[in-house]
Amino acid sequence: MRAKPSDDVAFRIGTGAFGVLLIGLVAAIGLVLLKQSMPSIQRFGVDFWHTTTWDPVAGVFGALPFIWGTLYSSLLALLISTPIAIGIAVFISELCPRPLRQPLVFLTELLAAIPSIVYGLWSIFVLVPAVRAFERSLPEVLQRLPLFTGPPLGLGMLSAGLVLAIMVLPFTSSVAREVLKSVPASQREAAYALGATRFEAIRAALYYARTGIVGAVMLGFGRALGETMAVTMVIGNSVRISPSLFAPQYTMAAVIANEFTEAADDLHLSALVEVGLLLFIITLIVNSLSRLLIWTMNRSAAVLSPADEPVEAVR
Amino acid sequence: MNAAAARKTWSSLFAAFCAASVLLALVPLAGVLLYVIVQGVRSIDLGFFLHMPAPVGESGGGMANAVVGTVIVTGLAALMAVPIGIFSGIYMSEYAGTRLSAAIRFAADTLNGVPSIVVGLFAYIVAVMPFGRFSALAGGFALGTMMIPIIGRTTEELLLLVPGAIREGALALGATRARAVFGVMLPAALPGIVTGIVLALARIAGETAPLLFTSFNNRFFTTDLRQPISSLTVQVFTYAISPYEDWHRQAWAGALVLVAIVLSCSLLARFATRRLQRMARG
Questions:
Q1: DSSP assignment string, B252-267
Q2: A156 phi/psi in degrees, rounded to 5
Q3: How far, rounded to the nearest angstrom, does the alpha carbon of residue A173 sit from its chain's CA centroid?
Q4: How does residue B279 score in pLDDT terms, banded at 50, 70 and 90?
Q5: Coil, strand, or helix at residue A61?
Q6: Per mean pLDDT, which range of A83-92, A306-315, B61-70 is the poorest?
Q7: CA dihedral for A293, A296, A299, A303, sign (positive or negative)
Q8: How far is it, in rounded angstroms, from Cα B214 to Cα B128?
Q9: d(CA B34, CA A118)
């Protein structure tokens, strides 16, 4: 039987419709959140973003403490995880013996597979007591610094940053590894030919891959911003803005998780949805930017070197 | 001479730092897994799967309702996500150059990055508010939303891996595009796609945040899709933040089950993909 052109059209429309559904779903998330947060947007306007009072009883809502907590914990996580993630990426793609490579990739990616709730449970019983012990043992002099003020509860920003760092690590390191892989072998060969040590050659490769590495770090940032359960369980859930690593604080995701089912009136509900909308917009921007950077990197690398693999013999 | 020695030292130090990073990452991995296994094995027994949650103060009890709830909610999610994911994946790979396919890919990546708690909010507004009650269906909708982009992108990538010659062969024999895709390409990519679905299910079964205010929780056994339903993750959360020793034990047992699901699926997928790669090569 001869194929009719109309069959292809039907196929295209049929499968395309599901794709359009997918696009519609993303648009719907934005629109639905926007609509539902209208009461709060109309009531508080821009004040919502920069005031610090969150009082469901009085019906006054300012989300700054949550925005602060989300940014603080995520940046802290990046600060801890970025050097380690790059170290892992370099080790796996450049230094480790070939038979070790796949198992190590598998193990680091397993870190991403463990459910958030399991990290949370482990943190409550293992990480938080450890952090508490560390906080207790800190010398008196240091405890006067704004960074370390407050009682040694264990629950607080430091625990949140640590558990987030662990959870973000596999994402950053696997993208950084991919990015390093796309650096043309000629770059390293040139460095070795000039008499570079291994470190200098890798540094050149990292420099070449900097756009993609920044993209990888931002991807981790996007993950950290939206992480909910583990952070909710260890950050202490206290509405405040403090520079201290020891202070219990709050994040945007955590306040939604904690208060949403108990929100009694529409304004409270609407305010929580607006926090969600804000989180949606921030992660959207961060993730898009990250993908753009990684894409730019891969593209420029592909143009310069049509699919070459790093040469083993050089090492 | 001295400078060269310094450079060599730097190089070794850097290599040592990289190796240490890997070890540093493996410490929490081993820590979490070992701790969950030790604590979980101590708390788990057959009753965990057969009994209902015990009231505070009474020891024993299990999470039979939560185990069934997790199966139901993830099953619902798969029902929603598998068709949408696979068909949009087909479109993305078949019409890879088009503007629509780029838009779908962008939407899928965006959806993949939406925080799970935000998906929960969305599902609450769409699937809970209009009906005035939490339900298993709403939970399935939330998890399904998260699952779609994973399956869509996996399908796309695997279809693109199918050798072009196979597809062209089918087309040259006069098959329609639909025939070529469903009759030849999809079967070739199927093992990989199934692996992807299994991995997606494992990941989705471990989600808590989207369920907090969609399927909510239920102390009783139910299979009614219009009622709130318990799930392992939400139950573990409830127990973990409670002050009771017995409930903590239950939480560890629940965490062990979750980790076992994830581990076995990951290992399965790893062996499956290895076999696939070998087949592709041979």
A1: HHHHHHHHHHHHHHHH
A2: 160, -165
A3: 12
A4: low
A5: strand
A6: A306-315
A7: negative
A8: 6
A9: 12
pLDDT tens readout for residues B159-168: 999 998 988 9
For chain A, which domains are there? 37-314 (1.10.3720.10)
What count of Cα atoms within 13 Å lies in the side-chain half-sphere of residue A9?
3
Chain segment B56-102, per-residue pLDDT in tens: 777 778 889 999 999 999 999 999 999 999 999 999 999 998 999 99
Mean per-residue pLDDT, A137-154 = 86
3-class DSSP state of A183:
coil
CB atoms closer than 10 angstroms to residue B98: 14
Residue range B206-221: mean pLDDT, rounded = 92
- Sequence-ordered list of residues with C-beta below 8 angstroms from that of B195, at least 6 positions apart, any chain: B268, B269, B272, B273, B276
Q: Is the pLDDT of residue B48 over 70?
A: yes
Alpha-carbon gap, residue B265 to B165, rounded angstroms: 32
Average pLDDT, chain A: 90
Half-sphere exposure of B255 (CA within 13 A, CB side): 34
Nearest Cα of chain A lies from the Cα of B113 at a distance, in angstroms, of 7
β-bridge mates for residue B167, sequence order = none
Does the structure show a pLDDT above 70 at B122?
Answer: yes
Q: What is the mean pLDDT of residues B177-196?
A: 91
What SS3 state is found at A236?
Answer: strand
- List the structure tokens of A205: 């490769």
Q: Exposed/middle/buried for A1, CB within 10 Å: 0-12, 13-18, 19+?
A: exposed
What is the mean pLDDT of the segment spanning A265-284?
95
Query: B202: which chain A residues are within 8 Å (Cβ-Cβ)?
Result: 113
Whether residue B1 is predicted with pLDDT greater than 80 in this model: the reply is no
**Residue A117 · residue A230 · CB < 8 Å:** yes
Q: For residue B167, give both structure tokens.
A: 């597809």
**Chain B: nearest CA to A230, how far in angstroms?**
10
Whether B116 and A21 lie within 8 Å, measured CB to CB: no
Between A84, A226, A279, which is nearest B25 by CB? A84
Say which residue, A200 or A140, is predicted with more confidence: A200
CB contacts, 8 Å: A115 with chain B: 206-208, 233, 258-259, 262
| Element at B112 (helix H, strand E) | helix B99-113
B271 pLDDT tier (thresholds 50, 70, 90): confident
| pLDDT at residue A309 is higher than 70 | no
Helix (H) or strand (E) holding A60: strand A60-61
First and final C-alpha spacing in chain B: 52
Note whether B104 contacts A22, CB cutoff 8 Å: yes
Residues of B in contact with A114 (CB under 8 A): 29, 32-33, 206, 259, 262
Calculate ∠ Cα A84-A85-A90, nearest 5°. 95
Amino acid A69: pLDDT: 96
pTM of the model: 0.92
DSSP-derived 3-state class of residue A69: helix
Contact A234, A123 (CB under 8 A): yes
- Is the confidence at residue A63, as pLDDT, over 70? yes
Ordered by where they begin, the domains of chain B are: 64-281 (1.10.3720.10)
d(CA B157, CA B138): 30
For helices B2-43 and A98-113, the axis angle rounded to 10 degrees is 50
Task: Tell me how many degrees the CA angle A198-A201-A202 measures, rounded to the nearest 5.
Answer: 85
